[in-house]
């Protein structure tokens, strides 16, 4: 069974990690004292003394790897998450070793001469080797699973949208190693097939299937109208000892990472979790916006000055175009841009979005839109607090009224400040692109916000966010 295989694999993984730690440590010692590369021959302490430290270092790092979920099955842990966990575990190990050395040097003379530089090399080498071995293991597992080995056999209970979506993802990712044996459902005829997966009986057949002990997992995928059966099905599955998971048929309502609360034993699932509703998070982001906007204003002031001169010289009208947009908590504000169109009446402005070869756009305006240089005055919106450096792009009031009725969850974007750039923009959804896709990306940003994600978006904006082929 998969459970037994996983236990054997974890033991092997621990042995490999121990080997990698020892090799990394020896390589660090060699690089520091014996390679001649760093011009540090010998050392105050012997090789044997340094090797004795492995008695503590190896178990310490293995415990840290376990604490940072590095023995979680590869099926459910992404590469980026695994890499960040490897880095974090090694950083914590590095800091713990330094703390111990600092405290012991007052009591044991030999620890004063213990090379801190060598431990820095150990940190770097071990991080690289651990991640490299994990990538090799991941690739090996994916290869054998694609060839039909090391599979996890799953039975679905309930035919619903959740069941179809689960099957879709399993078949799109054969490297996960899941094999759906069939579906049990009381309302769908036996033999009904979805992408090669058959309905093989009713829910009552569980009583006969579970004792055969040929399944690794039961996935409960009941439709909303059948949730009254859930408690009984879970009880039957748990009696058999088969791992059971629940895939709710309301994934279009709750986020992929729901925020749960415990009210004295009563689980409460929040429909939407917004990290920026936390006062500390909001304060950190606001400080970043103020400092960032001031730096950008100073840094880009020559470009803004040249742009202002070009706008003023090439067409009559105001230098700055102010337009009403909807921001945080649905509050309207005036967003600033360099004017890129000939002067129009308010009625003409409301006619609609710009389109390709729009005659209202000036020659210099077309260039400014393509390069996003017209957006720079929004740095002052950020400084004022109307906007953020990163966030969902704001829309005009008439479009907000239109989209709130047409697009589910559209108004959630107004739970955070709008941004000069955002997750949707750096993924190509700017200008004349799908509104629904933009909202999907905006919701992902809102629910998964971190300072690191903001920095990533700003970085991506520099390299692929300024030039916009969909800007007219």
UniProtKB/TrEMBL annotation:
InterPro entries recorded: Bact_transf, EPS_sugar_tfrase, NAD(P)-bd_dom_sf, Undecaprenyl-P_gluc_Ptfrase
Membrane-protein topology: Multi-pass membrane protein
Stated name of the protein: UDP-glucose:undecaprenyl-phosphate glucose-1-phosphate transferase
Keywords recorded for this protein, A-Z: Membrane, Transferase, Transmembrane, Transmembrane helix
Keyword Membrane in annotation: yes
GO CC term (a single one): membrane
Secretion signal span: none
PANTHER family: COLANIC BIOSYNTHESIS UDP-GLUCOSE LIPID CARRIER TRANSFERASE (PTHR30576), UNDECAPRENYL-PHOSPHATE N-ACETYLGALACTOSAMINYL 1-PHOSPHATE TRANSFERASE-RELATED (PTHR30576:SF0)
NCBIfam families: EPS_sugtrans (TIGR03025), WcaJ_sugtrans (TIGR03023)
Compartments it resides in: Membrane
Pfam families: Bac_transf, CoA_binding_3
Transmembrane feature ranges: 12-31, 51-71, 83-104, 119-137, 290-311
Record domain Bacterial sugar transferase: where: 285-464
UniProt gene name: wcaJ
Gene Ontology molecular function: undecaprenyl-phosphate glucose phosphotransferase activity
UniProt similarity note: Belongs to the bacterial sugar transferase family.
EC code(s) of this entry: 2.7.8.31, 2.7.8.-
């Amino acid at each position: 069974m998969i459970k037994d295989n996983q236990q054997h694999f974890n033991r092997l993984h621990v042995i490999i990690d121990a080997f990698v730690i020892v090799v990394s440590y020896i390589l660090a010692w060699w690089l520091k004292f014996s390679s001649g590369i760093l011009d540090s021959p010998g050392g105050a302490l012997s090789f044997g003394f340094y090797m004795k430290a492995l008695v503590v270092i190896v178990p310490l790092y293995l415990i840290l790897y376990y604490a940072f979920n590095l023995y979680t099955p590869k099926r459910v842990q992404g590469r980026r998450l695994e890499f960040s966990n490897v880095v974090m575990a090694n950083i914590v190990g590095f800091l713990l070793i330094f703390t111990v050395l600092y405290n012991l040097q007052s009591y044991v003379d030999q620890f004063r001469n213990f090379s801190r530089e060598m431990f820095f090399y150990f940190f770097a080498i071990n991080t690289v080797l651990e991640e490299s071995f994990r990538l090799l293991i991941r690739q090996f597992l994916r290869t054998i699973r694609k060839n039909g080995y090391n599979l996890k056999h799953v039975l679905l209970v309930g035919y619903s949208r959740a069941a179809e979506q689960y099957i879709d993802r399993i078949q799109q990712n054969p490297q996960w190693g899941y094999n759906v044996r069939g579906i049990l459902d009381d309302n769908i005829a036996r033999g009904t097939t979805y992408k090669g997966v058959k309905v093989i009986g009713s829910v009552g057949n569980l009583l006969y299937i579970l004792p055969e002990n040929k399944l690794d997992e039961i996935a409960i995928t009941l439709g909303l109208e059948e949730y009254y059966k859930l408690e009984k099905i879970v009880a039957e599955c748990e009696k058999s000892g088969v791992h059971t998971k629940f895939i709710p048929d309301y994934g279009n309502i709750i986020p992929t990472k729901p925020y749960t609360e415990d009210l004295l034993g009563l689980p409460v699932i929040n429909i939407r979790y917004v990290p920026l509703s936390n006062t500390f998070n909001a304060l950190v982001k606001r400080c970043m916006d103020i400092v960032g906007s001031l730096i950008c204003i100073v840094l880009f002031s020559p470009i803004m000055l040249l742009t202002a001169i070009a706008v003023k010289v090439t067409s009559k009208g105001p230098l700055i175009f102010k337009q009403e947009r909807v921001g945080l908590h649905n509050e309207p504000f005036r967003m600033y841009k360099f004017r890129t169109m000939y002067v129009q009446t308010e009625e003409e402005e409301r006619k609609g979005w710009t389109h390709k070869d729009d005659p209202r756009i000036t020659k210099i305006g077309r260039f400014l839109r393509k390069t996003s240089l017209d957006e720079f005055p929004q740095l002052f919106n950020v400084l004022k607090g109307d906007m953020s450096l990163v966030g969902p792009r704001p829309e005009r009031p008439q479009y907000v009224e239109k989209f709130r009725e047409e697009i589910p969850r559209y108004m959630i974007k107004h739970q955070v400040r709008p941004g000069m750039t955002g997750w949707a923009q750096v993924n190509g959804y700017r200008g004349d692109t799908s509104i629904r896709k933009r909202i999907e990306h905006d919701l992902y940003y809102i629910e998964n916000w971190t300072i690191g994600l903001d920095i990533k978006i700003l970085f991506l904006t520099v390299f692929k966010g300024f030039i916009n082929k969909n800007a007219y």
